[in-house]
Each structure stands twice: as C-alpha cells, then as structure tokens.
Amino acid sequence: MELVNSLGRRKTAVARIYLNEGKGNITVNNREFKEYFPSLTLQYIVLQPLNLIGVPEKYDIKVNLDGGGPKGQAEALRLAISRALVEIDAEARKELKTAGFLTRDPREVERKKPGRPKARKRFQFSKR
Known about the structure:
By secondary structure, the chain is an alpha+beta fold. It has one domain (4-99): Ribosomal Protein S5, domain 2 (2-Layer Sandwich). The chain contains 4 helices and 5 strands. The protein has helices at residues 33-36, 40-53, 70-88, 93-99, and strands at 4-10, 13-21, 26-28, 31-32, 59-66. Strand 3 (26-28) and strand 4 (31-32) form a beta hairpin. Helix 2 runs parallel beside helix 3. The radius of gyration is 18 Å and the shape is elongated. 29% of the residues are buried.
C-alpha cells in the first residue's frame, strides 16, 4: 500500500494527513497525538473512524493541523481520516457515511456587520 493523502476541514481548521501502513502511531504537528489532544473526548473524536472500521492499529498517520480551536481541529482530522480510509477501502464508505463521518460541516462564523457590535446583535435602543 502506498501513501494516501487526504484533507479535512471544519470551521477554520484544516487537517492535511498522510496515511500509510504501520503500527497505529498518530503524529500531529510533530507531536504525539495524545499530547496534542490531552482531552479524552477529542481523542475519541479523532479515533472514531478507525474504531468503526476496526483498524485502530493498522495505519500510521502524520498530520499537519492549522487554524481553528481544539474541537474544530479534532473534527477536521476525523473527516480527513475518514476520507483516506474510503480511498484505501471503498467497502468502508457505507459504514462511515451512515455514521456521518464523511459529511463536511459547512457552518462558518458569520461576519460582523458595520454599525453593529456583532454579526446580528444590535446596540441597546434608547427612546430618549
């Protein structure tokens, strides 16, 4: 099996991954995956596609993460891993699709409008 590249996005986070066969090591920005995501919840989010298919220790993954916060980065990484797994094994697509791991969450922050404190919030109205 050769190297598989994949990209995942969520809000402003971008995850570029390089997946190849190995022992299950995940390196994020040249740091250990569990060190980069100390929260067990975020670790669980990242490993969801691998656990669903039943291959958590079959692939080594090298990740370049940029932008966003921890949760957005974890979800971007989940999408990237799911896309890479589908590229390797087309049979896994149905399972990942029903779990919702192949859907790009399109929600982005709405821009701030002029004359307002935030995107939709208005300044307090004063009658006098």
